[in-house]
Amino acid sequence: MYLTDAPHLRILRLLRDEGPVSRAELGDRLELSRPRLLAEVERLVAAGLIAEAGMAASRGGRRSTLVELHPGLRFAAVDLGATSIDVEVTNGRLEPLAAYREATDIRSGPRAILHRVNDLLAKAKAEGVYERLDAVGIGVPGPVSFRDGVPVSPPIMPGWDRYPVRELLAREHGCPAVVDNDVNIMAIGERHGGVAHSVDDFLFVKIGTGVGCGIHLAGAVFRGVDGCAGDIGHIQVEPGGPACSCGNTGCLEALFSGAALARDALAAARSGESPALAQRLAAARPARSGSGRAARGGSESGAVVTAKDVADGAAEGDIACIRLIRDGGRRVGGVLATLVSFANPSMIVIGGGLAQLGHVLLAEIRSVVYRRSLPLATGNLPVVLSELGSRAGVTGAAVLASDSAFEQAS
């Protein structure tokens, strides 16, 4: 993947992904002539991006010097969800040095949310994690113009339309900033350090408050002309179905997402169709901890049932809980079967909050995809759960931040 990049990017990304490497090995791996390599390394050392790291093992002659990313490099990674903020500060190898997670409501608006992000980064700075940031990467739960660094008409983010997120973060922290949607950064994260490591063509499907698909083709995220590729949550799967936040009806997201599952689970609990959920609803307290808006449903009294309740009920053999999960898996699988026939990926990764529904969901998605797609497309197609889980987003945001910083070195 490095051979198509500019020489300085090839060097920096290899050191980021693989750690200290000798000059001799860099030249061999990246197919650079020795004079060109030495000139690039010298320039990157002068720019403060790489540093010497001792002597390499002997290759039979004079020992070469190891080089590594400068130990002072710092990147901020931010993953905004509908109900949570995840912030990490990493070193050049993208190893987390500080991590913060807290509940929030994306509907609070960009000023309040970004102010809180900046507070968390200021906390890391006060704790001595960094002196200055080299770049910031952030993912948001809605469509993004990647070129402009702004959300565009995000259905669940009132007040965020065209808000200058990239510009404000870059100005606040005095460094490059990059903005993408949350499912794209999750796909990038899973490619960098998860189950899709070294897989060039795969789909990352996030099922949470919303539903989206990160499309990773030929080693890079495919965003489309305007940045909205992969917005599968608003594919209509049932004409005349429930109203969706986008203004249409019968969308996948309106039928199976965190909010949709909460709605249907609450109905099953109230009707008595699900004894397991009815029992949990009766025992629920108004402010039960650990359950975000994306995975809860509430009654007028404040009692809730959660996606975890549905998963636990299914594990206990509750027929209604199993049906809710299978119905959702069938709908997701139907959409993915179409995508498999269109894009022929080599892997599908399922992530997001509803991935906690586990193997009942996964088995149903697999069954529909394998049944409805051509055998040639599914003969070697694993459909798996995310390995990084809740860290996929911040990992991908850190990758984007580092790429942005490295590109500035041209």
UniProtKB/TrEMBL annotation:
Domain of life (superkingdom): Bacteria
InterPro entries: ArsR-like_HTH, ATPase_NBD, ROK, ROK_cs, WH-like_DNA-bd_sf, WH_DNA-bd_sf
CDD domains associated with the record: HTH_ARSR (cd00090)
Homology family: Belongs to the ROK (NagC/XylR) family.
PANTHER family: GLUCOKINASE, ROK (REPRESSOR, ORF, KINASE) FAMILY
Name of the protein this chain belongs to: ROK family transcriptional regulator
Protein's organism: Actinoplanes aureus
Lineage, highest ranks first: Bacteria, Bacillati, Actinomycetota, Actinomycetes, Micromonosporales
